[in-house]
Amino acid sequence: MTNKLLILSTLLVPFASAHEFWLEPSKHTAAVDERIDLQWMVGENFQGEAKPRDLSRMVRFEAFSGASREAILGIEKKTPAGILRPITAGDLMLVYESNPTRIILEAPKFDAYLAEEGLESIRAERAAKGEADKAGSESYSRCCKSFVRVGNGPAVTFDKPVGMPLELVPLSDPFAPKKGDKLRVRLLLRGRPLANAQLSYFSREAGGKRQTLPTDAAGEASIELKEAGRWLISAVHMERADPAKKLDADWQSWWASMTLEVVAP
């Protein structure tokens, strides 16, 4: 009994503004053969801490450039999680996908998290089924991207989906947008546009305050890049967990994120 109580206490984690997870390269613009460190970051309001590389969490950790696709290497249990040294000019799309992790949140914290992430359909379903006062058990996965321009090579990779369960795809060049530009993005769920989903976006230079907007019928939204510097865009999708997957959770969620850098005019 004691061991079971101990395990449960570690799963009942406190809710803290729905922690984001993102990829953070040491630079978004690099020269050929210049080293780029790539951190796995977790935190709030686009401020956080670097997490060490962990092979047990990885489904994929890759760099895409044109037709090439390479694993991102690093030292296990160390930061940075990845180290790159690109040998050709062009665009790099950096991708990380995690396997599922299970957590349990007490009912009020789970409800607050659902409200903050715009998951109103899940709140409504819990209420309709008399589950509003039940702790939320969830199995979540991360689906992350970041973008680096190497030299003066062409940008040919950024708008190509890579097949993650939940995926943010920029429809305009994310490598050197200028302050005041609009970035058009599409949110895909299992390869299909996801309408009426909440996108959250953060500018670090503006203090990391969360702003939100919904995707349209085509799963798209335009984000006005009002500040120069680094930006984070994220989205969450949740579904009732499929018992056949044996996730030991009531809900399954996917967290997509994307980071880029905006330059001054």
Please describe the structure with a list of short key phrases separated by commas or semicolons.
265 residues; mainly beta; ten-stranded mixed beta sheet; 3 helices; 18 strands
Set out the fold topology.
Layout: H1 2-11, E1 20-25, E2 29-30, E3 36-44, E4 47-51, E5 58-65, E6 68-71, E7 82-84, E8 90-98, E9 101-105, H2 107-116, H3 120-128, E10 136-150, E11 166-170, E12 182-189, E13 192-193, E14 198-203, E15 211-214, E16 220-224, E17 229-240, E18 251-262
Parallel strand pairs: 2-10, 10-18
Antiparallel strand pairs: 1-3, 3-4, 3-7, 5-6, 5-8, 8-10, 9-10, 11-12, 12-13, 12-16, 14-15, 14-17, 17-18
Summarize the entry for a quick read:
It is built from three helices and 18 strands. The protein has helices at 2-11, 107-116, 120-128, and strands at residues 20-25, 29-30, 36-44, 47-51, 58-65, 68-71, 82-84, 90-98, 101-105, 136-150, 166-170, 182-189, 192-193, 198-203, 211-214, 220-224, 229-240, 251-262.
Describe this structure in words.
Helix content is 11%, strand content 45%. It has one domain. The protein contains 3 helices and 18 strands. The chain is globular. The chain is mainly β.
Residue share in β-strands: over 45%
Order of helices and strands: HEEEEEEEEEHHEEEEEEEEE
Look at the structure and give the mean pLDDT. Answer: 92
Number of strands: 18
Helix-residue proportion: 10-25%
Radius of gyration: 19 Å
